[in-house]
Design a protein that fits this description.
Structural class: alpha+beta
Shape: globular
Order of helices and strands: HEHHHEEEHE
């Protein structure tokens, strides 16, 4: 059960600057949106989404070696919760000591990282790269 303090912290973080962890290195232009949506639909309805969510889970598990996650979930719990999220639902991973939030909405091909500090970003960049993912800010 989420406490009011945790809920308040999450609500506050959702208004902060954010970064995106994605399978693509940059945002797709409007001229290419038709193809992007075709790729998105294909990936969401293929085994790719399972592979992508596995990478997301591994990324969070690796981050847990460096930063506390609210609720102190085990690696198995993280993996299982992310896997359950492939087509519906959502997951919030709150890193309360660093005031960072990572969200994942079921069926999305990206994760969102709110309010990362410099150390968190540096490690996240390296871990994302190791999983074959890309980290980019939302204001590029």
């Amino acid at each position: 059960m989420t406490s009011h303090t945790t809920e308040d912290q999450i609500e506050s973080l959702l208004e902060k600057p954010f970064w995106v962890i994605d399978f693509l290195p940059e945002q797709v232009s409007a001229e290419r949106s038709k193809q992007y949506f075709a790729v998105d639909e294909y990936f969401c309805n293929s085994q790719y989404i399972n592979l992508l969510y596995q990478k997301f889970a591994y990324l969070i598990i690796k981050l847990s070696c460096y930063f506390d996650i609210d609720g102190n979930p085990s690696p198995e719990d993280i993996f299982d919760h992310v896997k359950e999220c492939t087509t519906k639902g959502y997951m919030n991973f709150l890193f309360p000591n660093d005031n960072v939030l990572i969200t994942l909405n079921g069926g999305d091909l990206y994760m969102t990282v709110y309010n990362p500090n410099e150390r968190f970003l540096q490690l996240l960049q390296r871990i994302a790269t190791s999983e074959g993912l890309f980290l980019r800010n939302n204001f590029e």
